[in-house]
Every structure is written in structure tokens, then in C-alpha cells.
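Quick note —
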Amino acid sequence: MTKKQPKSDATRRRNRVDPSTPQPKPPNSDPKNFHGSNNHRFLTIIAVVFVVSSAISAFLYCRINHPSLPPSFAHQRGLVKEDVTFQEILTENSRVSENVTQRHFTNPVLAYITPWNSAGYDLAKRFCPKFTHLSPVWYDLKSQGTKLVLEGRHNADTGWMSELRLRGNAQILPRVVLEAVPKDLLRNKKQRDKAIDLLITECKDIGYDGIVLESWSRWAAHGVLHDASLRKLALQFVKQLGDSLHNVRSQRNGQPLQLVYVIGPPYSESDKLQAHDFGPEDLRTLSDSVDGFSLMTYDYSSPYSPGPNAPLTWVHSTIKLLVGEGGKSLANKIFVGINFYGNDYVIAEGGGARAITGKDYLSLVDQHKPTMRWQKDFAEHFFVYSDDQHHEHAVFYPTLMSIAERLKEARSWGAGISIWEMGQGLDYFFDLL
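Predicted structure written out below.
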């Protein structure tokens, strides 16, 4: 199978709102295929429902996995379970605990907020005490001739930031996508220094607590990481940026500015890392200079291979591959990615797919009143329906149970989580955090 080049993270994430291009197929598993004459056979296999008692089992689940914490409001209502019904989803999704200050996942929680989804801004304020880091998607660092330009200050909402800081202690680290011509930037010390100066100046001017940087998959797409000397320069740039940020104190709390670095899952066809993959050696190289790594453990399936958004076995193997031999020593710096969006696939040759948010999902559930199906290997719910043209669809979207399983996985590593993105999920998801 020919290997596809990874896309830039910014492009991948825009496609989660309106996906129009296929994503690379991730490794290390045997993804199920909805296509062709095997449609019904596959659906029959994955339609097996594993029934558990609701309220009692949910309470015991919570007590086992959160021994020192009271059960979440969602657990108290017996909603975190495999045999969830469409009626429960429609009735309960907007009901949340009045106590938004109680954290049930006590490891770091980073959430992304995008300008194209205004609901995320309101949810960030409402549930602010649940988060340790909030990352508004505001900036791009670009080449303009021989100069560098940081675009995006017009997005910066200082009033919203002030409200957040009245409601909680979450650090605000805007996301910056590094779109400058990679080879020009990395080979030119003056450009590297200028890039770092632009980012630090912006943090000082607006009052940020640091930044979230995306660059690795863009560098991979431009072939930078296949060149040993350029790869070394790339790592040196990230280290220099992190060290420089640490030398500056936040105006708000006097703490060093932070750097969170975005990394994608490996896209090799086996457990062997490819040249462009971010691996355990890179993690160790950057660990002293980077405060956290936002790991994009989602977008597993594609229109060409419909299926789960982030199979739990794949999430586990991805973390294991990243931390390398020795296990958990650096896992506490990882923010395990959790998607709050889903996908609606057409199950037919060349059928296609569309990304869906909570509003889309509730509309489909209300219209089709489906049987919710839990697949244990994936640890995800899905349902099937037929549209007006009698085309069969499969819908994969997060549920309380699928999120709880991923929180449990992150907790087992001592890792945090990162959520893409605020405003795409259902309100009661936040009860679990």
C-alpha cells in the first residue's frame, strides 16, 4: 500500500468541520470495512450489544476507577453504560451538575476553542474550572517574502480571557500554526530568532500564559523530517522556543510561559516508526523544553475505510509506541486527544462521509430513533440508518461510555487529555471531567 503524506495539523482540523479530503489510514490494527458485499456481515458482527445493569454498574464503575472521588452526575444517573438508548441521549444530554467546580478527571485537561464555533467560547466560560489549559485557535506564523508575519491578533478576545480568569485558573495558550516556509526558517538563524521573538512579544502584549505550537506534520509534508540535518534543526528550534518561553514570566501569575507541542500519531504500516513520525527519542529530546505534547489520537477512519473515530486499542498502542521502552516516565507530559465530533459515513462504494457535531448527532438520533450499538474492541457506540435514497449510513459519535473509557486509559498512563473541540460535543460530556 502506498504511503500517504500526513497533512498539516491545521488542514486536518479544518476538515473535521467540513471533511472533503480523505485522511491517511493509521497503523497497528485491522480496521473493519463497511464497503461492498460485506456490509451486512460486518454490521451483524459489530452489532452485538453487551448489556450491563445501568445505575448499579455505573456506580461501581465509577468507584473502581475513581476511588477517592464522588461519582459524577452522569454516573449517578446511570448513564455511563454500554446499553444506552436513544431516548436517554435525547432526554439527558443537556442536563449537567450544578457544581461545575468538581473535577472528576484530576490530570491536566486542555481544550481547543475555534473562531468558527462560537458555542465553544460560552462552554469554556461555563465549565472553566474543569480545565487546566484552554487553547483558542487564533494564530498563524507565515512567510511574507523574506519576512515573517504573525497573523491572528484580530481574533484575540481579551474580554473573554478576563471572564475566564474570573471563573477559574485555566492557563490560556493560543494555538499557533507554523506555516512559514520550513527550509527557509530552519536554515536561517535570524528567521528562527525572529519567529521566537514574535511569539514571545505576542504573549507579553496580550497576556497569554504561553502557546500551543503546531508544526511537525507540516514539516513532514514538506519532506523536512526525512533530512537528518533538517530534522535536527527542527528539534533544536522547538527546544529553543520552549527554553525562551520559560525565561519569560506570565504577567498573571509570575510562572514561566509554557509550550505545548502538537504531535500526530504514527502513520506507519507497522510498529516501526517512519522517518517523519514523532517518536520516543523526539519525546525525550524535547521533554525538558516542552511542557506538554498534544497527541492527536483521533481521525482514525476515513471515507475510504469507515469505522470508529479512535479505537481504544489503537489509542493504547499509540501511547505505548510514543513513550517507548521504560513506559510511563514521560507519559505525564502527554495530552491524549479525545474527539468531541463524529462522522456520518455512507456505506457504499465511493460513498463518502461528513463530520458531525452534537447538534447534527441529536438531529439524526431524533429522526431515526436508532438502536445504539456498542463495539467492545473499539470501545465506541455507533448506529446505522437509511436515508431518503435508501443509502445505508453508519454514524460514529462519542458517548459518555466511550469518553469514560478514554479517560480511564489516559489515567492509567498518568497522562492528561486534549479535547478537539469545545462546542462540538454534548453538554453532559463535561460532567465526566
